């Protein structure tokens, strides 16, 4: 069998040097104000230039850029070259992106997370494309003896209308490569965009559909071994003893090694390793409390009333507001732990050699993987390479480095290249989870139904701060208190798509509907009134854009024909996260006496939409993810052991349960903001509020399927 490797930045440099001609631009991801510059292909190959990405135009008319951010399904491998192609006036079919390896001396923010890749790279990519176009135009102007201002470009070609001359970019690439790039470059007027804002197919679609090797699971190195690892079966256990004799005697098994709290079976195939793992005889001993879901409910209740809270934000005199209130509204909401469940299970390759370490695999945080490898092996970071493969989902799971750490440990112990592979059960029962949280909300209303006081307490299990104290409605209520209490547990947690806001938004938006009802006001108008207060007479600092939030609320209300549809029960939700604003209306109808979710109408302000197709997929996918987990997702524990171990026990939304999702983007011309996560947080609240309208029963706990109002619809 052959070795499969991703095309890397290093490969690109070799190709560039071999080509010996064309235009090569270096530009800095870390500094959006720095001008791109022409570099020599031989300098690129020798590594003697200090730019951290490259744009090349070959004499064959091909256009290539190196991209630092891992592709995890968010579409940057398509969006990034679209931005370059727009400013370059390139033929889209000729543009491609090469995945860059880890290089944190050159790259900045070489990570996928927080919906930040496009906002970070937008201006840098535009400058690179515009600079390349400038150089090509000036090279053609010099050759044709005409003013550069008279040359136009389109579809990777140069035109001089007066003389009738034309040429491809490739014909002038080498000449352009001998010019000096300008220190300041004029970018296109956004109104003249031709490619940006259009629907473009994902550049990897064909390779994915035809099974080409793209993902970490596809990676193969001649002579490598495989490892399946047994981790403690309960959170709170530690390894006591191992009898591996029977496992070692099984076919294909090379070794069984222990490290930290794990036992690794190493062999020639994953199946052989998996079967041998079943033959291990392992004893564990208790190292921490073995918690059950019943324990968590008791802990939540106790800490909610008696826990020592950390104040996150306080405005005005909250005690006086509640003392003088005409009406007080209280409610509690609770969310369970959730696994990430990416389609591609965890895997990673490591080769600990005498002179350094090679790492290959799907990671959202390649620098974290290298840092952990340095700790384990003692090698300095510069002796450790990380090659990033395409990733079959992550949702925050691959922000952790545990799977990479395991691969390094095993390779070091067996002195061979090793690929660690997790089973679905391994990840669902021994990975990291969305933290479980309970919220208590209280609102004080005056005699006119105005909200004069607001309190939120969040109690989280390994959640850090389970609130977002500066998000709406902060700034719109004169007297406000937001605090939190934390419980430390042996259960491992980590970021889960739209961390914290994925469940906080559902709770906040559901509660605001409860308050609006108690005030006798329409839920949409109630929110708009609060935002007008935040705009005209804010209470403390307002850290969200009031006008952008108002705009998506009004757009969603308009597109859903809010409150005017007969026989349709509508629920509203709006949220700000990851620099973007999303409002959603859930629509429920009653069929044969049962409520059924039929539609979600979403209004999205993420700034300029680069790829309409990819953006629609991100929004629709986020909504389906949000409503699916709100309705069905549940991870419970008994004595530290997860009750659910695979999809036969962990309920996901099914195809026939997915509603129609209608998406409308706000066209405000601002630079792109985040999109991979912001559509998920409002989804649960829109559904919960719509179900209340249909059933007059509140859905205060996730998953909704366990709530009485939801019974019988699945």
Automatic annotation (TrEMBL):
InterPro entries: Ald_Oxase/Xan_DH_a/b, AldOxase/xan_DH_MoCoBD1, AldOxase/xan_DH_MoCoBD2, AldOxase/xan_DH_Mopterin-bd_sf, N-heterocyclic_Hydroxylase, OxRdtase_Mopterin-bd_su_IorB, TAT_signal, TAT_signal_bac_arc
Domain of life, source organism: Bacteria
Record-annotated Aldehyde oxidase/xanthine dehydrogenase a/b hammerhead domain positions: 210-288
Example GO molecular function: oxidoreductase activity
Pfam families referenced in this protein's UniProt entry, alphabetically: MoCoBD_1 (PF02738), MoCoBD_2 (PF20256)
Matches recorded under NCBIfam families: TAT_signal_seq
UniProt-recorded name of the protein: Molybdopterin cofactor-binding domain-containing protein
Organism (species): Dyadobacter sp. 676
């Amino acid at each position: 069998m052959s070795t499969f490797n991703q095309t890397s930045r290093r490969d690109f440099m070799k190709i560039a040097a071999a080509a010996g001609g064309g235009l090569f631009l270096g530009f800095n991801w870390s500094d959006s104000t720095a001008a791109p510059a022409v570099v020599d292909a031989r300098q690129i190959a020798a590594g003697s230039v200090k730019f951290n990405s490259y744009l090349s135009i070959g004499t064959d008319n091909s256009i290539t850029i190196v991209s630092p951010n891992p592709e995890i399904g968010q579409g940057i491998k398509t969006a990034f070259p679209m931005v370059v192609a727009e400013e370059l006036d390139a033929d889209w079919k000729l543009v491609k992106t090469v995945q860059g390896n880890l290089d944190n001396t050159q790259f900045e923010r070489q990570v996928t997370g927080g919906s930040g890749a496009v906002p970070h790279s937008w201006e840098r990519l535009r400058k690179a494309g515009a600079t390349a176009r400038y150089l090509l135009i000036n090279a053609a102007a010099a050759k044709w003896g005409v003013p550069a201002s008279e040359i136009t470009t389109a579809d990777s070609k140069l035109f001089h209308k007066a003389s009738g001359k034309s040429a491809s970019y490739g014909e002038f690439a080498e000449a352009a490569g001998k010019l000096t790039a300008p220190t300041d470059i004029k970018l296109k007027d956004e109104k003249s965009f031709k490619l940006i804002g259009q629907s473009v197919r994902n550049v990897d679609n064909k390779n994915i559909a035809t099974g080409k090797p793209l993902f970490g699971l596809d990676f193969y190195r001649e002579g490598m071994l495989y490892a399946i690892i047994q981790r403690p079966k309960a959170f709170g256990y530690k390894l006591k003893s191992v009898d591996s004799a029977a496992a070692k005697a099984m076919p294909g098994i090379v070794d069984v090694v222990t490290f930290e709290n794990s036992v690794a079976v190493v062999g020639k195939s994953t199946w052989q390793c998996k079967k041998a793992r079943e033959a291990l005889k392992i004893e564990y001993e208790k190292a921490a409390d073995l918690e059950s879901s019943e324990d968590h409910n008791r802990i939540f209740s106790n800490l909610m009333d008696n826990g020592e809270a950390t104040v996150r934000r306080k405005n005005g005199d909250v005690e006086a507001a509640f003392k003088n209130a005409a009406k007080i509204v209280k409610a509690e909401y609770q969310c369970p732990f959730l696994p990430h469940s990416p389609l591609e299970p965890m895997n990673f390759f490591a080769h600990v050699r005498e002179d350094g370490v090679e790492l290959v695999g799907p990671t959202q945080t390649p620098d974290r993987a290298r840092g952990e490898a340095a700790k384990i092996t003692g090698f300095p970071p510069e002796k450790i390479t990380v090659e990033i493969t395409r990733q079959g989902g992550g949702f925050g799971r691959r922000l952790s480095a545990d799977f990479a750490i395991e691969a390094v440990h095993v390779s070091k112990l067996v002195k061979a290249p090793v690929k660690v592979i997790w089973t679905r059960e391994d990840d669902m029962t021994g990975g990291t989870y969305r933290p479980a949280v309970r919220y208590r909300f209280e609102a004080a209303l005056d005699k006119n139904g105005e909200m004069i006081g607001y309190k939120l307490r969040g109690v989280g299990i390994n959640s850090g701060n389970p609130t977002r104290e500066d998000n709406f409605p902060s700034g719109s209520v004169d007297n406000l208190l937001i605090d939190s209490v934390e419980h430390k547990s042996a259960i491992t947690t980590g970021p889960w798509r739209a961390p914290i806001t994925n469940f906080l938004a559902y709770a906040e938006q559901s509660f605001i509907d409860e308050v609006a009802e108690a005030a006798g006001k329409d839920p949409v108008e109630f929110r708009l009134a609060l935002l007008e207060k935040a705009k005209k007479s804010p209470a403390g600092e307002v850290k969200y854009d009031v006008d952008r939030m108002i705009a998506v609320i009004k757009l969603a209300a308009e597109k859903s024909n809010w409150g005017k549809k007969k026989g349709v029960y509508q629920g509203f939700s709006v949220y700000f996260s990851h620099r973007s604003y999303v409002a959603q209306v859930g629509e429920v109808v009653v069929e044969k006496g049962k409520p059924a979710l039929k539609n979600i109408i979403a209004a999205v302000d993420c700034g300029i939409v680069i790829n309409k197709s990819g953006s629609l997929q991100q929004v629709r996918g986020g909504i389906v993810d949000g409503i699916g987990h709100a309705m069905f997702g549940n991870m419970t524990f008994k004595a530290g052991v997860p009750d659910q171990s695979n999809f036969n026990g962990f309920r996901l939304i099914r195809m026939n349960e997915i509603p129609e999702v209608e998406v409308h983007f706000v066209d405000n011309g601002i630079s792109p903001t985040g999109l991979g996560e912001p559509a998920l947080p409002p989804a649960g609240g829109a559904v919960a509020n719509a179900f209340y309208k249909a059933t007059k029963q509140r859905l205060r706990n996730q998953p909704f399927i366990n709530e009485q109002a939801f019974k019988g619809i699945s």
